[in-house]
């Protein structure tokens, strides 16, 4: 019996959670959050790091273009027209004597503005529309998906050209046109996720607890299907940058007086044989921008897909 134990035995007894030899009890390790795990995975991947360095450099150029560019991108020097690269003009001068490097640096702003704005608008629109379509199903799903199919039936760039022909030139019109082209892709992806998620047990449990349809869609369906949308959105930024350059190259983009990589390439088209740098240098910047976002998208795919981690 406990009452019959000696004081020495009681003093030698230890609590159940106390470790021998003076060791402290082990603390349970807290699970790492999805955000920290994703960032750690991206930083450990060489491909993702390369893409991040490219994108970070472009962001810095876009923010500090006023301080980095040695000249005004609109300043014309007809005496130095078509001058080759030199110490005073590192990437040469175009047919109007404007510094090519300065115009490329300022064109980074247009490219990032269009790319980020298009993805933000089309991703948010497609996510909401696709989630509602997949969750409710029935006739509303059929109507929404048939509308999306109509947009997807046209090649993206061809549809954007038609929309720009109607809306006219301008940065805002480019963003609107490319957003209209891009939203159906996001809608179809999120709809497929919603169709599978709405049948799971935790959705049924929330429904039995009288959760509203609004809460089910925006608190459960969308947050649990956002991973593929983030990956597509990152890659979509590169598509939007490339599409804007294509529209500007055709004279349907941001406008002739605004520095844009596409318009810079178009301006150097007539002198490509004798002065190839007019098209090569902006083309390199365009290719690096698309490559950077695609590399980050590939890294996010590996980081957010558990089946690819091992």
Summarize the structure.
This protein has helices spanning 7-12, 34-44, 46-63, 65-68, 100-136, 138-152, 156-167, 171-197, 201-208, 213-221, 226-249, 261-267, 277-304. The protein has 310 residues and is mostly helical.
Labels describing this entry:
single chain; 310 residues; mainly alpha; MetI-like fold; 0% strand; elongated; disordered N terminus
Structure write-up:
The chain is 66% helix and 0% strand. It has one domain: MetI-like (MetI-like fold, Orthogonal Bundle), CATH 1.10.3720. The longest helix is centred in the middle third of the chain and has 37 residues, at 100-136. It has helices at residues 7-12, 34-44, 46-63, 65-68, 100-136, 138-152, 156-167, 171-197, 201-208, 213-221, 226-249, 261-267, 277-304. It has 310 residues and is mainly alpha-helical.
